[in-house]
Amino acid sequence: MTQTPAFDKPKVELHIHLDGAIKPETILYYGKKRGIALPADTAEELQDIISMDKPTSLPDFLAKFDYYMPVIAGSREAIKRIAYEFVEMKAKEGVVYVEVRYSPHLLANSKVEPIPWDQAEGDLTPDEVVAVVNQGLQEGERDFGVKVRSILCCMRHQPNWSLEVVELCKKYQHQTVVAIDLAGDETIQGSSLFPGHVNAYEEAVRSGIHRTVHAGEVGSAEVVRQAVDTLKTERVGHGYHTLDDEALYTRLRRENLHFEVCPWSSYLTGAWKSDTEHPVVRLKRDQANYSLNTDDPLILKSTLETDYQMTKQNMGFTEEEFKRLNINAAKSSFLPEDEKRKLLDLLYKAYGMPSLAAAGQRL
Fold it and tell me: Could you give the CA distance from residue 224 to residue 228 in angstroms, rounded to a whole number?
């Protein structure tokens, strides 16, 4: 018996990692092709090893990438394929617009020994990675009818990469790239941001590059404050611990800051303790600006439907709230205004609502 979809209308997704959204079959294929050992011989076994089925910690979650990233990283063919297949995956989930993020440097690296894969020099340059991902996304957009844009990630543990990341954002901003992000372990920085990240975000502001930041997932509300006040972020990835600082939360809600919420991810990474009210319930109650997202569906063994069912069944979400949050996601997307308006009109029509112009609304 198939489950009734929680929300079967067009959706927008703003927070998903390309390297966390790969088909296990593709990982197996390139493991064999490149002669890189994997801990399983079938897609089902590999999925079980890579994925999580109970709450853990964010570092444990991030360690899952070590199983399979060496198989993909550094391979032009593999990177283009995962980008193309990503768009196909989103089309099947009813997504009409998605912003997918990744670290060009992590996907450039391919050597496993003798140093960790994420610190090695690979077969591709970060610039080449962005060009290849763009090709895969654009071909997927053409074949599957999903509008796709990308976000390039700086990594908290590698501040020396960040200036190159913002330069790649500038170079490719008319070829799918719409923004810069800061990802990785929030706790690694201590109480201050590395200068490399700050300098990169200052350049992003100067150059008109949109900005989002992973903050307040497991880090404190102070990390969110730094993201907003120092990095001048326009959206916050996760942001759950913002609610620990009522004054900050009130301010950001007043400023209409967008929270990229990933409910199922927050459960399995331990970012949200399931014996407490999920922060997204407060956001819903306050009619705040947020979206629902999958984060890393390969590791979380999920689809976007997982997050919608979770919020519908356990948190009282209704179809009207799903419509509202998707409209907010579209409004908070990093598309140019004319493309954003077209996306909103598509959603309004699908939702049986008057268009922006008919309702006398502005973006």
Answer: 6
